[in-house]
User: Fold this.
Amino acid sequence: MLRALILVPTRELAEQVLQSARAYGRHVRGVTAAAVYGGVGMEPQTRALRHGADIVVATPGRLLDHMERGHVDFSRLEVLVLDEADRMLDMGFAPDVRRILAALPEQRQTMLFSATCRLKWMRWRAGRSTATPRSRSAGALRPPRGSST
Assistant:
C-alpha cells in the first residue's frame, strides 16, 4: 500500500534515494520501497506498484506513465516529498508535477527539499500548495560574520 511518494528529477537520484530508503527501513518489518523512472522496462516497476510498495521514489514522467495505465493507487498516500523541487521545475517538470498533485489525496503531508533553492522561493511555493506551511533550514542562511561574500 503506497504511503509515501518521493518525486525526484532524475533516475540517478531516484536510485540513490531508493537505496537510502531501503537502508533506513531495513529494520522495519514489512516496509517495502520501489523506484519508478524512465530508461528501463516498466514491467518490474508495474509489479512493485501492484504488490503495494509502501514507499515509491519516482521521476514525474514515468510516474505519469504508470498513472495513465492504472498501475498506481494513491488512496492511502500519507506523505509526498518533492526532492530537489527547484531543479524539477527548472527541468520543465512543472506541468507533470501539477498533474500528479491533482491525483493525490488532499489530506497528506507535503515536504519540499532543495540543497540550492532560496528560502524565500520555498516559502512562497509551500504557501501555494499546502494548508499550513512550515519551514526548516540546515546550514548557513547568510554569510558568516566578517565575510565579504
Remarks:
- The longest strand covers residues 79-83.
- The radius of gyration is 16 Å.
- The chain has a mean pLDDT of 84.
